[in-house]
Amino acid sequence: MKVKRALSYLRHRLSDIEEEDYAQKEALEILAHLLGVSPLNVYLHAEEEISEEELQRILLERLKGKPLPYILKKAYFYGRPFFIEEGVLIPRPETELLVEVFLSLGIDEGLLLELGCGSGAVAVTLLLERPKINVLALDISPKALKITQINARHFQVENRLFLVRANWLTSLKEGPFFRAIISNPPYLSTNEWTELTPEVKNFEPMTALVAGPKGTEYQEILIQEGLKYLASHGIIIFEMGYNQASRIKDIVRGWSYRFYRDLLGFERVILLWIEGENT
Ligand SMILES: C[S@@+](CC[C@H](N)C(=O)[O-])C[C@H]1O[C@@H](n2cnc3c(N)ncnc32)[C@H](O)[C@@H]1O
Hints:
This protein is α/β, with parallel strands linked by helices. The protein folds into two domains: about 5-65; about 95-275, Vaccinia Virus protein VP39 (Rossmann fold, 3-Layer(aba) Sandwich). It is about 40% helix and about 20% strand. The strands form three sheets. A seven-stranded mixed sheet has the order 5-4-3-6-9-11-10, with helices on both faces. Strands 1-2 form a two-stranded antiparallel ribbon. It has a two-stranded parallel sheet with strand order 7-8. Strand 4, helix 7 (about 140-155) and strand 5 (about 160-165) form a beta-alpha-beta unit. The chain binds S-adenosylmethionine. S-adenosylmethionine binds next to helix 6, strand 4 and helix 10.
């Protein structure tokens, strides 16, 4: 089948399970995968033939509800393709705001701590964008650490990335080690998990998304304990749910803070620092 015909065929079939915009995006990602090019370059190959058998295999799995990144073993984050497998959270576009805000702070060197690295999308992106920083990234999931290592090797930043299996901050030695702590923590409540689409619930790891009955459990620990690990002028930055800003405001006593909004206007990232310290 020619690429241009495959594109309209895929768009049409995928629109049975998702919005048109999303169907177009996924159709391009499937074709990019089959052609071995970036999704932006698919149109340049419009007249090429692709394997119809492989296209049907991918489409069938997708129509059964499996998320595309788990089928293609690839998820785009901050414009780069990351290796991904079931058992590890698919990096979300929302998390690009976390990265964007961090990059706007002018922190160009020093050691950062990432809590809950998942696929490594955040840590690896920061290492690529800021060539003089180092990152200590931890996760409770051995699979996440393995995938982070694969991505770090692929993007050739593994010599600036230290990986540790740990349960949040419990086994970290206290001390002024980190210029910044960054995290996209699990932040859903147990109730919110039950309301997720089957596509998320049936395939993505619950431990990557759910914090506990409140949803803010990991963020609270970070706010209460984070200072013990920060160097002077250190900052904490983390992602939160679209509905969590007011609860987080109630627990950030002692910190100065600023929220950052996503494109829909929700406060989704918070930056914390200690007043009087020039960040
Ligand atoms: C929302 S995911 C974020 C993954 C990745 N940073 C991203 O943004 O795509 C949260 C991560 O925290 C990890 N995690 C969950 N509970 C943890 C714990 N108690 N200690 C360390 N990591 C934990 C999960 O395994 C998951 O990889």
